[in-house]
Design brief:
Shape: rod-shaped
Number of strands: 4
Number of helices: 3
Strand content: 15-25%
Number of domains: 2
Helix content: 40-55%
Order of helices and strands: HHEEEEH
């Protein structure tokens, strides 16, 4: 009986329809697309979550200029005031409060574009 049951099992297995090569390729492509979409959604969600956790409406870092690998200057906006801070191994140091720069239309110019001018003006006062 054992031989007969093995023969029947082999006969049934040979009658199973295996998927074609094209079907396997299509299923693989669909699986890759689904996995890619899950990964993109995950990173999009994490990015949005980190912005909500770390972001602030009141305090923003406008620009950073690295002096070397461990020290940099940064312009920080707190409310409507701008501050130049020095950051290094010893901590964070207040350097100066920066004045707003107005364009000809009376709008505030982004400090990112005028940071170098503000820094030169500040350093010029110290000499």
């Amino acid at each position: 009986m054992t031989l007969v049951s093995i023969a029947l099992a082999l006969d049934e297995a040979s009658q199973l329809k295996l998927p074609s090569f094209g079907e396997l390729i299509i299923k693989s492509i669909i699986a890759v697309v689904i996995v890619s979409l899950v990964i993109v959604f995950f990173f999009w969600y994490i990015r949005g979550f980190l912005r909500r956790v770390g972001g602030s409406e009141l305090i923003k870092v406008i620009d950073r200029v690295y002096l070397d690998t461990r020290r940099f200057l940064c312009v920080v906006k707190v409310g409507e005031r701008y501050f130049l801070l020095g950051v290094g191994e010893g901590g964070i140091n207040f350097i100066a409060e920066l004045e707003k720069v107005a364009s000809t239309e009376g709008e505030e110019v982004a400090f990112k574009s005028s940071f170098r001018k503000q820094l030169e003006k500040l350093l010029g006062k110290r000499d």
